[in-house]
Amino acid sequence: MLVVKRGWTSRAYEDWLAETLRSALFRTKMYHAKRKIDHYRNMQPVTPPLPQSTRRSSSWRIRCLIALALVPAIIFGSVTSLRLLGLFRPFYIPVGSMAPALSKRDHVAMEGITFLLRYPRRGDVVVFNSDHIEFLAPQTFYTKRVVGVPGDHLTISNGDLFIDDKLVILSNNEGRIVYDAPPISGSFSLQTNVTVADDCYFLLGDNSTNSFDSRFIGAIPRKEIVGRIIFCYWPPSRIGIVR
Description:
30% helix; alpha+beta; four-stranded antiparallel β-sheet; 4 helices
């Protein structure tokens, strides 16, 4: 209840009431303003988080770029190390004695890791060193296919290959390999009925009528076999796995 002082006129009362209301409103505004200032002072600045999808997308792209940069470096380093150890070597094929598996002027890759883990097997296309082999120029590499392994009794008759009196069929990219005698065989005594010695391998060319191989020079010692041909990388029309 408002108490109006005695003697106040109506005009004085209205002025007093207006001043009282303005003062109360001012104090209320100041109170709320002070509370807001205190509230903001106590708040810690927080960086708004990035959207989750954006962070994941950026992380995935970074990982892909790192992987793409590392893969060539790893491949180059691995090939270089194997090359220095003699476990990976490129070769150029100058003749067609292994056609069609290896054609003249093919560029192929040889690896030597397989024969550190296992012995050569029948059907492997191998590289051997001509050192200590009669009739062959020294320090030269040749490519042939393994047809006989140590202990095999091997016979070649009418183009057919028999191992321990059983017909064995080997194939290349064009199908069955036929081991016909080359036309120059008249001046040589062909070895077509032999038992392969221990730690030796009987090697023949797929193009048998144009191949100087174990029929002429005998089985090849294991120590002279340096690796296995696995891939042809040139020319483009010949790119692929060697079988």
